[in-house]
Amino acid sequence: CGRGPGGCRGGRTDMALRCAASLAAGRQPRGPRREGTMRWSSAAKPSAVKINEKASREKILTLESMNPQVKAVEYAVRGPIVLKAGEIEKELRKGIKKPFTEVIKANIGDAHAMGQRPITFLRQVVALCTYPNLLDSPSFPEDAKKRARRILQGCGGNSLGSYTASQGINCIREDVASYIERRDGGVPADPDNIYLTTGASDGISAILKILISGDGKSRTGVMIPIPQYPLYSAAISELDAIQVNYYLDEENCWALNVNELRRALNEAKAYCNPKVLCIINPGNPTGQVQSRKCIEDVIHFAWEEKLFLLADEVYQDNVYSEGCQFHSFKKILYEMGPEYYNNVELASFHSTSKGYMGECGYRGGYMEVINLHPEIKGQLVKLLSVRLCPPVSGQAAMDIVVNPPVPGEESYAQFIKEKESVLNNLAKKAKLTEDMFNKIPGVHCNPLQGAMYAFPRIFIPSKAIEEAKAHKMAPDMFYCMKLLEETGICVVPGSGFGQREGTYHFRMTILPPVEKLKILLEKVKDFHIKFLEKYA
């Protein structure tokens, strides 16, 4: 009968069937076999074979044999508290009674999951790029079609399904450069310094990967703010670099103090080679917006100490407080003069995930890297080429962020209305959250100047701290777990972001709709008061 899928010829198939039947009947199979071996055929039905579980050999990959750097990685935003929230959701679906009817996931800045509507124009352009037949539809505006055609012309075969250059589609990088020039009041931007990325996270990880080197005391140290976004500590652990903490000043609205930078740097020189300084502006999880003077001081410090600057600016559209304004590090660096602008190495990051767009799932982003050594530029492109290219639909989404409708185009009025609605709503929710938290005994919340989170400080009584230790939990993890189990509200403990010893916080997004946010905050208030009564 020819060679079958199990490698049998002719009568061997009958033999395999007889073998399977014998096994099903509990008898040892008969027939020719090599000594010490059993020849199995795919013709045998799986149900006819009894698996001896005790005979399975030891796994190659175990917790002991796995990469220790991966095991050291922690990412609190999707950590144990979120896994517990998922378990509770499953229980609710099964009809298991809880003191609440739904889990509110306030742990992550996922705008659309919280009910924010997409920006119409962005979705129109991506739809046109995804299904070009729609270019003939009268349902789509001409300004959207114009952008879609331009993006498709930059794709191989005029298809979003083709690979692109590793740095990204050229015309989109040109649009990013034009956007940066407009944003920064004419400061020049070179498309060749633009790299499209899979969200900002991809760019940050790539730059850190190329920066880290050395052994022992010469191992690269990476300075990060505390509290920080856990991407940084996770990437540092994965790359086996040295984390160097500098603390933001909670008593001064989470301000960055250069004296604290200097303290952290000088202490770190004893055990590593600090050469990277990471800044998050506006802050995550802390929501502060840095002043121009602060940025100038940081740039001077980086220039003086020969540090490579990473400026995480994904919340640049999210500024709410009066008197606060976003200043890009690139712009301030340029305005400080050629001594700084021609020498300080700077990588800046932006994303489609935050701002007014909230398009987390497209994984669109870019980084601009300036003053990079020409030979390192080639190495960076080589590194990025290993992942071929960022998602092309994400590149298209990023293009609309940097190349939106302008006055005079037919989509402008709707676009600006939607954009302002989102940002005004976020500003309202930022103030609401701050005010309501500060009315709760034992809770203090600094002003939410920007971004999309609150990071309130919470008082945890000593009795609760002792109970947390008994459960082998950080006190704020214990608090957040109790909050989840009693109210269904999922927030992230401050210990996952870092905090000064003896202080406790949690991070909560302000993204839920206003009425739902009010209910959430009232539930937190009621829980906290009961928590204090129980443990005080």
Automatic annotation (TrEMBL):
This is alanine transaminase. Residues 124-523 form the Aminotransferase class I/classII large domain. The lineage of its organism: Eukaryota, Metazoa, Chordata, Craniata, Vertebrata. One of its GO terms (molecular function) is L-alanine:2-oxoglutarate aminotransferase activity. Catalyzes the reversible transamination between alanine and 2-oxoglutarate to form pyruvate and glutamate. Its EC number is 2.6.1.2. GO terms for cellular component: cytoplasm. It comes from Poecile atricapillus. Its cofactor is pyridoxal 5'-phosphate.
